[in-house]
Amino acid sequence: MDGEQVARGIEAPGDFEVVFRENFAQVYRFIARRVGTDLAEDLAAEAFATAYRRRGSYQPSLGSLRSWLYGIAANLLRTHWRAEQQLLDLDARLTPFVQEPSGAGQFSDAADERVTAAALAPRIAGALAALNRDQREVLLMHAWAELSHEEIAAALRIAPGTARSRLSRARAALRAQLGEFDFDLWTFKERQS
Amino acid sequence: MTDEIDLLRRFREDLPGPGQAAWDRAQAAVAEARAGGRKARRRRWRLPSRRVSFALGVAIIGAVTAVLIAGVLQGPPALTSPVTTAWQQARPLPAAGNGVPASAPGWRLTSYLVSRGWQENTAGPEPGVLTCPTASTCYVEGDSATSSSGPADMNSLYVSTDAARSWSVLPVPAGVTFTSPLACLTATNCTAGGLYYGSQPVYLTTASGGHSWTVRPLPAGVGQVMNLDCVSVTTCRGLASVSGKALSPGFSFMADMQFVVTSDGGRHFTVAPFPKGESVQSVSCPTAYHCVAVGVYDKLDSGMAPNLDHGVLLTSDDGGLSWRQRDWPAGFGPGPTPEVTCTDASHCAMIGFVEHNGTVTDQLGGVTSGRDAVQYNVIGFSADGGATWTTSTFPRTIPYPSIDVLTCTTSETCYAAGGELIAQRIGNAYNAESAMVAITNDAGRTWQRVSFAVPASVPGGMQGDSFMDIGQIECPDAHACTAIGVSDQGSTSTPIYTYNGHS
User: Fold this and answer.
1) Could you report the predicted ipTM of this complex, rounded to two decimals?
2) How far is B29 from chain A (nearest CA, A)?
């Protein structure tokens, strides 16, 4: 949508069609990454039906359209936090974490990084599962929805400073859960106990 | 440079986007929402006027439909006269086990207040509003709603009569939510503002320690009572919001505030507005005539938040009927939790807020940097009735304090409670902050810190944030205080800390 259209809101059904076409795939993926594809179909549909019903309440001055949509999605996801937790627990147990050999540094291109990341997925799932819900919410909005501090604040209706500090704490907590990750070797180094 | 966010972005990255079925499903849901909207409008507006001259049968159907519509459109119940509820027993909550001594003599983590559905707030008052009229009797207003979003409804009331060791649930009149903390003249005589079925401002009084309540509709123009202080059973004064709306999303500032006084138990009020464009958020009247008020300007920066670095300071010498503008002190702002408290006509203290560009690193290695990234609280002290102020900064043993509440028992002794940037591990989660009380006995020249270690086991449902911060502290005398943790979203309990300097 162009800036002028966003500024005047999305009350006209035609405007909403544009919003739907441009944002549905990203919002669906965000939901699917959090609670799985089975639930995502229902929740993404519900998110946009809710957005349509509440389109008159969208105020461009209070935040971006994306943050408003992800805020609606976040509200729906909150009622499915058990599903999210179960999925993370499941991912964490699927395959035991495999420590990469010291030669893991040879994985340098993007494809190899993806393969390694998949191998590390149980460890990341376990770390995410250990975060509290507030921390996980801001972290995933930042990492997966690519929302800025200000957009997260608008989505969750919290102060920008709160969003910033909550995200900072969430990142710190994630790092603490993960232990040390060496981005040069692209593997975890366990902390000395 | 890659970091944990990059690592996270690759997690479940290969998950496919929506298939055709997902698109179809969503389009159908939106279409259904659209059709639902059209049907609703047709039912509400077309039937009565266009078909009234048709055949009798059609007219009857129209009339019946109109009655049904009127029923649907009818608003929430309204109170037209005072109602007094029957005396009801309190329901004891399960005891939470033995308390845990804190870092300083006399302080303990005494108990946990365990309830259903504590919610983190996004607008309106903090959950778990504490009032302790005596060292042994405390009340907590809380939220029992199961809603996972939106502001908390303060529709629960808890009481302890054994210095916060055990708690019971008191009855709250049907349809009532509290909008102000309780103002208690004695252990059993309390007053509060409230809303009746979420929309009608009411005035609540109890003479039985919350077992029975009188709910009185407030006169038009008073607004939603946000704060009260009572000097007798019938004479109370405080702040009310005419619109009952928040000033901006994400902050607990209320808009359209005015000073209200009643001397007949809430039947009639005198209303004194504050200067236009100023939203007073806290007022303290240590005598019948002298009052000090602090707040923020209505104008929002970037349409999002009020100016937290420069606030509104007013004093009154006629009991709040007229207000004199004072210069806001240099060196700090009102911050997100402006609060002033005065112990006599001369001595006052307020929470101040400092922010500037820079970098803050917590003990877990988390870094916050950039514009206004460095944020902490200081305490302002006044010895001339709020006209001028000096700044008291906390010692380095309290890193980056975030003060939520301030209470002073004498002109020299004050308790500031909140969180500090000291990391801790709670169960499987790490938190960068810890709950803390700072105490001064010399009007801010020196401070002592009290910290609270997290016990090895905490009640089920309690999340880390409950131990990160203290949201309320009440000190009915200089040597007895009770404090309550800020509970996290979804947490079902919150810690209660006590201080007994007499023991």
Assistant:
1) 0.84
2) 5
pLDDT digits (tens, 9 = 90+) for A122-172: 888 888 988 888 889 999 999 999 999 889 988 888 888 888 888 998 898
Decide if A132 and B429 are in contact by the 8 Å CB cutoff.
yes
The two tokens of residue B422 are: 């000291």
Name the token pair of B436. Answer: 């803390």
DSSP H or E stretch at residue B142: strand B138-142
Task: For residue B348, give the nearest of B307, B308, B381 by alpha carbon.
Answer: B381
Q: If residue B36 lies in a helix (H) or strand (E), which one and from where to where?
A: helix B20-45
d(CA B75, CA B222) in angstroms, rounded, equals 21
The CA distance from B169 to B46, in Å, is 49
Mutation target for B interface from A168, A180, A193: give the one with most B CBs within 10 A.
A168
Predicted model pTM:
0.64
Q: Name which of B4, B463, B465 is nearest A174 (Cβ-Cβ).
A: B4
Closest CA to B497 of B103, B141, B107: B107
With tokens 């903090």, the residue in question is B126
Give A176→chain B minimum CA distance, Å.
7
Question: B88 exposed, middle or buried (CB, 10 Å; 0-12, 13-18, 19+)?
Answer: middle
User: H-helix or E-strand containing B140?
Assistant: strand B138-142
Distance to chain B for A9, nearest Cα, Å: 16
pLDDT digits (tens, 9 = 90+) for B201-236: 999 999 999 999 999 999 999 999 999 999 998 999
All residues of chain A having their beta carbon less than 8 Å from the beta carbon of residue B26 are 20, 24, 28, 44-45, 48-49
CA contacts within 13 A on the Cβ side of A190: 7
- Could you please report the per-residue DSSP string of A11-34? -SHHHHHHHHHHHHHHHHHHHHHH
**Contact between residue B280 and residue B257 where contact means Cβ atoms under 8 Å apart:** yes
Whether residue B173 has pLDDT greater than 50: yes
Has residue B459 got a pLDDT over 70?
A: no
Joined tokens for residue B275? 């200067």
Test mutation, A11, A21, A41, A137, chain B, max B CBs within 10 A = A41
Residues 6+ apart with CB under 8 A from B23: A24
Side chain identity, residue A185: L
CA A70 to chain centre: 9
